[in-house]
Specification:
heterodimer; A: 24 strands; B: alpha+beta; 7-stranded antiparallel sheet; 9 helices
Chain lengths: ~475, ~450
Amino acid sequence: MLNKSAAEAALQRAISTGGDFAEIFYEDTRKSRISQTDDKIDTATTARIHGAGLRVYNGLNSVYVHSNDTSAEGLMRLAGLAADAVGAQKKDVKVHLVGSVTPNIHEVKQLPMDVSNDKRAKLVGDACRAARAYSSEIAHVTSAQWDWEQHVTIANTEGMFKSDTRVYTRMMTQAIASKGGENQTGHVGPGGLCGFEIFETLVDPEQAGKEAAREAVTMLHADFCPAGVMPVIIDGGFGGVIFHEACGHSLEATSVSKGNSVFCNKLGRKIAADCVSAVDDGTMEGEWGTLHMDDEGTPTRRNLLIENGILKTYMIDRLGGRRMGMAPTGSSRRQDYTYAPTSRMTNTFICAGQDDPEEMIRTMGDGLYAAAMGGGSVNPLTGEFNFAVREGYWVKDGKIYCPVRGATLVGSGAQILMNIDRVGPEMWMAAGMCGSVSGSIPTNVGQPRIRVSSITVGGKGGAL
Amino acid sequence: MTYETFKKAAFDAALSLGAKAAEGVYTESERFRVGILSGEIDSYSVSSSYGFGLRVQVDGKDGYAYTESLTEPEALAARAVDNARTIETEDLSPMQGAQVYESVTDPAQPVADMEPAERIALAKKLDAAAETAHEKIARVQGTSLSCSKYRLHISNTLGLDAAREGKSSLVYTAPIAMEPGKDEMRDGLAFRTGAEALDIEGCAKEAADNAAAMLGAAPAPSGAYRILLKSTAACDFFEAFSGIFSAEAAQKKLSPLTDREGETIAAPCVTILDDPFDARAPRAFDDEGTPSVATTLIDKGVFTGFLHNLKTARKAGVASTSNADRPSAASPVGIAPSNFILAPGQDTYDALLSKLGKGLVITDVSGLHAGLNPISGDFSLLSSGFLVEDGKIVRPVDRITVAGNFLTLLKDIEAIGADVRVSPSGGGIIALPSILVRELMAAGE
């Protein structure tokens, strides 16, 4: 635990040379991971992450220092390093920390740390067995289950002294289907801000194994996707990754506050089609991207990013807020104490609309139906992105014609937002890890089924 | 508790819990980073960290546990032993015994030896240089300088005692080019490492030229193109596929090279080496403490063998190629290249452009973690570069995807340049020149 008087002393020292704000982020985290390949458990690891990060602001300048040594002397040493980097002024300041531990509304019923390796082994074993039983074309299966329990305490020179515990549990199963030297993969990776009760409620390992196998086998029998510019239907769940990457990152203060985003100075202006509203909501119970408070101690909330095509707000951390003259939005996150926090996403999604999910296929003519999206990347400056389509189907004359593989979607966030012409009535989400300047963090992406009237599809196939 | 006391207590506890052997990887590092925005310090961070990874052997199986707090060594040992007992694979995981190592000389790292004030001045100088390096540069998105010192100690109860210290440094800048009066923004990026980190002007010019050259870029028509993969893109591209040379992937039949030793898999001009002694990033031993050896992966087009650690080598009945890899003390032992090198050819970049004739130069590929399949070798990547006709650059190109298969590409290589690019990769480097490829599919407009 972070000692309150040690924290007070270190914070005082940290702003004794001209800094106007300082913060300590203390962390003690236990991680556990087990994995099986085919029919045998092949790795089991545990880790304890322990340390503290200390931040000092002087106006818009910030200094970040961190160390594993969280003793009173260690914190003082950190504070001294930061103070020396900030300036050479001398001032005396008193910091008085007030504890305000609010009850965690995200209840954990079964702490992962109390779960034996045998029980973990059974989960990944069930998933692998189910995947292998699905088809003789399944050549390999790997299934991993991991979880972590992060205890944090955040103290700052405004008197904040808050603690929080975040418990994450996740499982990822990958099946590889093989035929005549060709390989295709399928994935299923649900997770939540919750304990092992997720395996009694939301996640059925056998079902996950089967689903991963189904995707792999389907893609093994798929033709290469034709390339070109065409209408594309993108399903919900992980399909939301495009909004996350191509729009979400460009709405983070990290890029907006420095002028490095296509959405700078666009508040109140139309950036998307009328049928598009989008939200980042860190309060959704048990979800993978949820947090009780963010990594600066600000309570998370529901931020309406886009309403009927109009840009309403950005996602803002404390330093970004200083640069932009705006209040933080509960969006400040970091992988662990080794990273200074910055504005990030939580559970980010395009809101449900009113369009008929079948009509949008029927009326699209020829194009691509992306039933499951893979990962991708984006240039936040230009919003240009590319994404792999994990499970795709060619649509011919308004009917699903055959599965297609190897497709990628290429475009820019600003352009795709304006080209969305259908938004379905049911929104669902999927878990992912988001990597950015403050490390890798759990986030949910989501959307209903949507249609984009025109987008570039990359692929190796000719006409179908 | 000091590291030595902690280690001894953890080893003793592991042995008393039934482990046949115990191994510790201890890392200590100090890092410095300064970020510059608009000529001012935008971010500044200093850190010191340590971590201890315990690996135990129970009935030939590996168990791991890692900690960043040198307290409770018995609990750490109990977790590692429990983890080892959970493993079901029959492959044995040997540990290295006492070894003798060649001495290697690290390249100079002048930035790591500077005082913080000098480093800040250097970073500000780079930022200013990038802003003025080309008339089209509107501002600089960010400039940074980072450097670190580390110490690594691998030791075990079988007598292994391997230690090394090292330094690294990197400067980079990312200027933004704009055409006066237009909204279009293009970012360029360049970095320098090691002694070259002092080459401020060169780094700034490269980044600014990269940004300015992309102004006005648009997709190219879809179709099959002759492709010149510029060294910058070649490094990223080959690094993403380097896992196909891992014996671990092969033994799990997850590499497209499985059971293909001795086959011609590439054009005769292709020779690929894994050389831990390469003077640009030499190391005397791998992450299991195995003394370094150089390995030829492809010899004039012929695939000669995989990269091994002790476990895969034992299974295959060969010697470890000293490619055991633990990206951090928390990671289990895997396999990775040390220094991955494609032997350069004779042609200058301009000579390759002439040989290309009509086609595309690809200078940048992105989305490598998603757009390629290391099991099949298939790729489909967002790319940018230039359209070339009669050996001359016609215009910049972006928002195209270039698709193909890695093994087909290896066979379709027509020429390899002399213009080697060195990029940090893992704990070592990847060094590739530009590569001329007979044909790839591009999707654009």
